[in-house]
Amino acid sequence: MYISFDPQTGKIEFGTGRSTREFKGKSLLNFIDEYIVFDLETTGLDPSYDDIIEIAAIHIKSGSVIAEYQSLINPGYEIDEFITNLTGITNEMLYDAPGIQDILPSFIDFLGDHILIAHNANFDINFLYDNCIVHLGKPLSNDFVDTMRLGRWLFKDLPNHKLDTMLEHFKICGCVEHRAHTDALNVYRCYEYMKKYATENGIDIKELIKKKKTHFKVSNITATVYNFDESHPFYQKVVVFTGALEKMVRREAAQIVANLGGICADTVTKNTNYLVLGNLDYCKTIRDGKSTKLKKAEQLKLAGADIEIISENVFLDMIAER
DNA sequence: TCTCCTCGAGATCT
DNA sequence: CTCGAGGAGA
Q1: Can you tell me the mean pLDDT for A108-119?
Q2: Packed helices A312-319 and A250-259: angle between N→C axes, nearest 10 degrees
């Protein structure tokens, strides 16, 4: 089920399929001084079927709490045992609580234009976004920072990036209570910990991303062994890959070639000796099933160049131990 | 070189 | 959702 919103007419549409939420704010990876960390408890995981039962937000400036907002919310029906066990929130507790429509205007006012922070932020943002459209007739467009995403960049080696795991690793006391206010407080501690960690270690996330994005090239791969079998067909031959290999990733294949004394290259030229053909099906932009590398190789072969076009299976046979 | 595209795999939230 | 692998085009 999806919700769509037209800002011109203010019209809201419900339908089947995926929500686009096209007015959602951007997911940032910044460390900022002033923000609002928040958390929701809900009756389940799906914003189109489930409802918010607790909401909490903490306004932080320069590392200190300057304002807080929190409330239980009556969803208009009985919540099930699973959620009560998980959160400790009971139907008695929700009986006198206000409805979401009573809370939302003041809550959104509290959020203002500030950047929002949450763990797995898309979960909370999506719930809030949909509720804003239904009850306020306008989307939630605040940019936000996801502490889980941040954690994945800064602490890649953790077994997982659940809030609990990160709290434990950061030696922040208390575990996830599944109550909005305490969880929000823990997310705030997590964020400040990572901010301090990045500053102290001179880590800039933007640089981290940039480094990863520098396009991987097989031509940068060098041999890790030094005694080559000079009779191997790849010895001192130039090898190029096209398409996705089934049995291994390109990096592994290129390393094997390099260790056989071969030379890996990124593009097909008149010096190329072998073009290894992977699967090209997945690429929609290839209409005739042939990549530019393959077309060029066929052209060169017709012109009499010393180039062979081989399938993955042939390639695997060639690199197999004898 | 750089930007933009598609696809599949994997993870987290209640 | 986000990321990585891979391709195309400027």
Answers
A1: 98
A2: 40
Residue A39: which nucleotide is closest by CA–C1'?
B13
Within 8 A by CB and 6+ apart from A142, the residues are A25, A111, A113, A114, A115, A116
Tell which wins on pLDDT, A280 or A223: A223
The sign of the CA dihedral A286, A288, A291, A292 is negative
- Of A30 and A259, more confident: A30
Residue A302, token pair as written in the block: 């017709």
Cβ contact A237:A302 at 8 Å: no
Q: Cα(A226)–Cα(A220) distance, rounded to whole angstroms? A: 17
Does this model's pTM top 0.85? My answer is no
Are A144 and A121 in contact by the 8 Å Cβ rule? The answer is yes
Nearest nt (C1') to A158 (CA)?
Answer: B11
**Of A1-5, A90-94, A114-118, A199-203, which range is least confident?**
A1-5
Strand B CB-contacts below 7 Å: A 39-45, 82-83, 86-87, 119-120, 123, 148, 160-165, 176, 178, 183, 214-215, 217, 282, 284-285
pLDDT at A168: 95
What lies within 8 Å, CB to CB, of A135 at 6+ separation is A100, A101, A104
Does the CB of A241 sit below 7 A from strand C?
yes
Strands A144-146 and A27-28: parallel
CA A290 – C1' B5 distance (Å)?
17
Q: Which range has the worst mean pLDDT, A54-63, A163-172, A184-193, A204-213?
A: A204-213
Which whole-number Å values give the CA distances from A142 to A27, A61, A126, A232, A291, in the listed order? Answer: 9, 17, 12, 60, 42
pLDDT, tens digit, for every residue of A72-93? 999 999 999 999 999 999 999 9
Enter the DSSP assignment of A172: -
Residue nearest to nucleotide B10 (CA to C1'): A160
